[in-house]
Amino acid sequence: MYQVSIRGTDRVMYVNPKDRRGGRMIRFSGLSQPRVTNFWRHSVNALKPSLVVDAGVNYGEVLLSSEYPVDTVIAAIEANEMLLPYLGRSIEEHPNASQIQIVHALVSDEDREKASFFVNKLHSGLSSAHPEYSKSSRQVELPTTTIDSIFKDRDVNRDTLLFKMDIEGYEWHALRGMKRLLTQCGTVVGCIEFNFAYLHSKNIDTAEFLFYLKQSFVVCTVNRRGQLIEFTDPVNEVPKYFALDKGCNDLMLLSRRDLFDLLK
């Protein structure tokens, strides 16, 4: 295990230096996605969330960059079993360790006993539920879970939910599997990966996906200067903006318009 000090914090994370994703964490001092991580840190400070979900937590770059209120319930969801020893060690040294539950499952829109997951042996960040038949890929079977199922026994009506999803094109499935949280939590702020090239390669209709997001969220992103910007017409505006800002691969989702003013 290689210890990485997370830039801008007094916390550490542990990675596999032989994994290309782990190597990236080392090179960037645990801050390879500054737009997402800085938005996350700002959201934690502004919202003081009572529920936190990181789906596709990987080594924990984003989740472990913040410290949370002592009563926050935190779910760290990861399908790649190879990452669990590193993630577990990192969580052990985090101030909120006792509040973080590691969920080893594939996040989806239904609970199933078994589903295929394709582990990229060279780059853990490219592992996906979408079929990938290559020499660097290894197919495994594991359970699926919905995010709603993880919190099925909790009354969430007064909760403030902060979530992140980076699950290689499976974000739409995961969102459908957290319908109860999205509709019942008092406040919801999220961040999802939205990589046009990857989504198109998996035959995902990005226009339909954006239309779906518009029905439930104020859809935003973070620009080069770290500022939150809103898309009033995501179906048309997001593709144009992402084509100009090549470093932009994520969308920020807000349940109410006043949250934009709080987080911008």
Automatic annotation (TrEMBL):
MF terms in GO: methyltransferase activity
Pfam families listed in its UniProt record: Methyltransf_21
InterPro entries: FkbM_mtfrase (IPR006342), SAM-dependent_MTase (IPR052514), SAM-dependent_MTases_sf (IPR029063)
Organism: Cohnella phaseoli
Annotated Gene3D superfamilies: Vaccinia Virus protein VP39 (3.40.50.150)
This protein's UniProt keywords: Methyltransferase, Transferase
GO biological process: methylation
Name the UniProt record assigns to this protein: FkbM family methyltransferase
Lineage: superkingdom: Bacteria
Occurrences of domain Methyltransferase FkbM (ranges): 100-198
PANTHER family assigned to the protein according to its UniProt record, in alphabetical order: METHYLTRANSFERASE, FKBM FAMILY PROTEIN (PTHR34203), SLL1173 PROTEIN (PTHR34203:SF15)
